Amino acid sequence: MLPADYEAVSSSDLTDENSKAVSSALQYFQTFMLVFAFVALFVGAFIVYNTYSIVIAERTRELALVRALGASGAAVFASVIAEAVVTGLLASGLGIAAGVGIAVALQRLLSAVGFTMPSGDLVLAGRTIWVALIGGPLVTVVASVMPAIKASRVAPLAAMRDSGTGGDSGVTRNVVGAVVGAAGVAAVLIGLDRGEPSFVGSGAIAVFVGLAMIAPMLSRPIVSVLGAPVEAVCGVTGMVARDNALRSPRRTATTASALMIGTALMAASFILSQSITESVERSVSGTVAADLVVTGNSQAGFSDALAVEIEAVPGVHSIARFRSAQFKIGNATKSIAGVPAAAVDIASPDLAIDIAVNAGDITDLVGGGIAVRDDVARDHGWHVGDVIDATFPSGDRPLTLVATYAHGTLVGDYLVDLPTFASSYVGTADLVGIVSVEATADVKAVQTAIQHIVDVRYPSTKVHDRKQYVADMKAQVAQFTSLINCAVVPRRVDRAPRCSDHDAACGVGANA
Q: Could you give the CA distance from residue 57 to residue 159 in angstroms, rounded to a whole number?
């Protein structure tokens, strides 16, 4: 009974579609958190290795006695590995329990930094338990292999006479460490130059590994220099501490390496959050060319009738309506934006968004053209004039690539003009309205007039000037970056954190 442009779906199908949409929206965040998870495993492996190295060193006489009583090196190796398996299983079980508790606490943390969580129970998937119970012991065993090998080589009599805990590293280790570290630095520089996160990540890991390998060589001179003032101030206590650190450079270096990675992670989180915030501010400030911005409080947008009413406000030159939806290229689901072609034409008096067109003619969007962000076009090997086969709810449609652009902060990776968008999607609402004011008009007066219309008939809509809009965008990004910092930086909370007070909520600034 429905018209051709509508379809009836079951509630379960609608739930599945919404779940996929949420999963797609959270994909970047999930990837980011997985990176932190792998870093945590990396740091944890260092700590486990250091712990087992110290344990084995302190048990040298015990192991030597076991060897003297007839135990083989293989038996000693197997006993250490067995201990690692048992320890890993017990720790993984405790980790699962602690993880559930942390998940409960995270719900409050998300609310504190401005995220609104939907109602529902926490989900502990079966795969989570299996990954923990298999991954935990596996990481522990891998980290304990080298200490176990060292334990298996304990000489029965020589070790009973000497219980040293490890000296300096060998020449081969130092050379390999220097090469790995240098290769890591090169990979980081190449990744930063080419914009390849995979190069930067792998290079950073190589730098950590290289530094950890040569750290025992650097440990003794560094401890000698840094320990001198400690010994001078603290007397006997400082002398004992300094001599203890000098006694086992490898143990000291291993402990410092784990601390180095943790410190680097904290520094990276602060640098990343600040960089994201500054990047968004610069991008939005340089992209929005109009005077006022009208936005909705939800993804549902607002009626296109509002644009008609705004155009009638005295002093308004034009309003660029912005819409967004999903479409498909092959089997990949992408987001596409629709705006009037004149709104992105830098030569037009109706310019509202400067997307920095660097190839083609953006005015050719009219009549079925598509513009693509230059990085995306380069990845696909597309050039101006190529035909891109796209799938919309209305069906398949070939679009000619007419231009590429550099700034996709507001419009995303794919852009068509508003009539093309409207013909492909039925009943979509405006998400943003970018208003240009006449040169002779008072921007504040126009904003007040539009705000009156919004207050009376569109209560879920906000009207910002450019400065307010940039601040609003920064506040949205700050929700994400605050979550990063709160997750990385340990702190004691003596009061409920305020989502509007970044310093108080995350232990930044004076509270650090």
A: 10
- Whether the model clears a pTM of 0.70, i.e. scores above it, the answer is no
Q: Could you tell me where the beta strands, DSSP code E, fall in 350-457? A: 357-360, 369-373, 387-392, 395-405, 414-417, 432-437
The proportion of the chain whose per-residue pLDDT surpasses 70, expressed as a percent, equals 85
Q: How far apart are CA 166 and CA 381, in angstroms?
A: 55
Largest CA distance in the chain: 99
Same domain as 493, residue 362: no
Contact 227, 252 (CB under 8 A): no
| Residue 506 pLDDT > 60 | no
Residues 357 and 313 grouped into a single domain:
yes
**Structure confidence at residue 490 as a pLDDT band (50, 70, 90):** very low
Do 337 and 326 form a contact (C-beta atoms < 8 A)?
Answer: no
Fill in the DSSP letter of residue 121. Answer: -
Nearest to 473 by CA among 288, 280, 286, 299: 280
Helix (H), strand (E) at residue 334: strand 332-339
Sign of dihedral through CA atoms 245, 56, 165, 46? negative
Q: What is the pLDDT of residues 170-219, one digit of tens each?
A: 788 888 888 998 998 998 888 888 777 778 878 888 888 888 888 888 88
Q: Is the dihedral of CA 442, 443, 444, 447 positive or negative?
A: positive
CA–CA gap between residue 360 and residue 385 (Å, rounded)? 9
Q: Is residue 172 situated within a structural domain?
A: no
Rounded Cα–Cα distance for residues 492 and 512 (Å): 11
Q: Which domain holds residue 492?
A: 483-511
Strands 395-405 and 461-465 turn out to be unpaired
